[in-house]
């Protein structure tokens, strides 16, 4: 959790060689030079070398998920992360199933919207912008509605940065004999999500989040029994996970044109992930990024939306200062001039902005981020970064 973060513990990572700004955004994010370099070669999608790359990618992701018993398989899917979420929902929820969506932000809303498009019956526990869904309320909803077959939850809700209590939710879901599907897009690879950490039927993530690859595909890690049961269920030819799985197992190939360069880059990203020390080390670097950045920003007078208990090591939401001279667009431009791309906030009640902790960067970079924020405030003539009173009232609702 955020603490005094003045002691430097690690040698700096290399800085970007191409003079690009750091992307303090939760994907696409700043990638290693070697990851970009891996894309300087063309691959034939049917060729044995590329088929071997696909097989390695699937195996290494299953290793990260800790599938010791061989009960799961990994199916990569072309497109951005949302394509894989849609593929998961359309493939694993039967047409006569009913989904309980635990929503506390934009990505939970997108799941409910996707289910509407798919024509799958669903109910929503809507916790607003950032309150965490808790096991007790999930239990109440499941007791009240026996038709619910599946629960879907977002692991880290990237719109606020909250890390939802997955273990508590999973225990509740299975104690009630239902099945859990997880959108772990922005957490997988840096936050524990092994099959032994909490139970699930399927979990989704994508290439351009915590594994630090470039955008172009997502992947679903699912129980083989669920993959088999998904046959003929999907609403969509291109998003049919069973068909992709079956074809890939038989031919070693993707059904339709694969993002070959993205796969090559991803394998390099996986190598770096492994070399760094896997999920634990990646998560520790991001947590350190967060601690250094949050401590510095608080010292500069900024306030976080979330209390320490709910802060993820992925992305942090700050309230915008109430000072009349503060304007987000100008702050954004001033930060960009200094080499840092930040992210607008997504809260509906008060103005906010977000700073990502993921990507190829470390605490040394985060100290420069804080310096850049301080100078940008000074350039704007903002001498007090405190948020409006209403923001702090919002936050105390969360603590209650
Ligand atoms: C990034 C992300 C997605 C997928 O977004 P795309 O823009 O489709 O890649 C889904 N859920 C969460 C929680 C995310 O962070």
From TrEMBL:
EC number of this enzyme: 2.6.1.37
GO biological process: organic phosphonate catabolic process
Residues reported in the UniProt entry to bind substrate: 354
Annotated region described as Disordered, given as residue ranges: 1-20
Location of the Aminotransferase class V domain: 136-307
Biased composition (Polar residues): 1-12
Family that this chain belongs to: Belongs to the class-V pyridoxal-phosphate-dependent aminotransferase family. PhnW subfamily.
Function according to Swiss-Prot or TrEMBL: Involved in phosphonate degradation.
Subunit structure: Homodimer.
Name the UniProt record assigns to this protein: 2-aminoethylphosphonate--pyruvate transaminase
Protein species of origin: Rhizobium subbaraonis
Gene from which this protein is expressed: phnW
């Amino acid at each position: 959790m955020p603490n005094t973060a003045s002691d430097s513990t690690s040698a700096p990572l290399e800085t970007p060689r191409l003079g690009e700004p750091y992307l303090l955004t939760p994907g696409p994010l700043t990638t290693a030079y070697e990851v970009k370099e891996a894309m300087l070669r063309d691959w034939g999608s049917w060729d044995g070398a590329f088929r071997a790359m696909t097989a390695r990618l699937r195996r290494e992701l299953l290793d990260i998920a800790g599938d010791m018993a061989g009960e799961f398989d990994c199916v990569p899917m072309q497109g951005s992360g949302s394509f894989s979420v849609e593929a998961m929902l359309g493939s694993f929820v039967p047409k006569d199933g009913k989904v309980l969506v635990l929503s506390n932000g934009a990505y939970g809303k997108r799941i409910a919207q996707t289910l509407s498009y798919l024509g799958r019956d669903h109910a929503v526990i809507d916790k607003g912008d950032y309150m965490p869904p808790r096991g007790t309320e999930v239990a109440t909803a499941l007791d009240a509605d026996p038709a619910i077959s599946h629960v879907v939850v977002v692991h880290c809700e990237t719109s606020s940065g909250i890390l939802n209590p997955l273990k508590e939710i999973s225990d509740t879901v299975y104690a009630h004999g239902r099945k859990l599907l997880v959108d772990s897009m922005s957490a997988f690879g840096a936050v524990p999500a092994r099959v032994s950490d909490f139970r699930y039927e399927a979990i989704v993530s994508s290439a351009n989040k915590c594994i630090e690859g470039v955008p172009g595909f997502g992947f679903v890690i699912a129980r083989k029994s669920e993959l088999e049961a998904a046959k003929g269920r999907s609403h969509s030819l291109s998003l049919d996970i069973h068909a992709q799985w079956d074809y890939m197992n038989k031919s070693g190939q993707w059904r339709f044109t694969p993002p070959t360069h993205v796969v090559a880059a991803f394998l390099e990203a996986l190598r770096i992930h492994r070399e760094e020390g896997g999920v634990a080390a990646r998560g520790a670097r991001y947590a350190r990024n967060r601690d250094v950045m949050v401590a510095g920003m608080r010292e500069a007078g900024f306030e976080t939306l979330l209390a320490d208990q709910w802060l993820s090591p992925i992305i942090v939401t700050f309230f915008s200062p109430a000072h009349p001279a503060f304007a987000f667009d100008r702050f954004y431009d001033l930060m960009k001039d200094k080499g840092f791309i930040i992210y607008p906030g997504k809260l509906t009640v008060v103005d906010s902005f977000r700073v990502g902790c993921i990507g190829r960067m470390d605490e040394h970079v985060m100290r420069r981020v804080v310096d850049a924020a301080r100078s940008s405030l000074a350039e704007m003539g903002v001498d007090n970064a405190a948020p409006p009173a209403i923001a702090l009232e919002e936050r105390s609702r969360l603590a209650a």
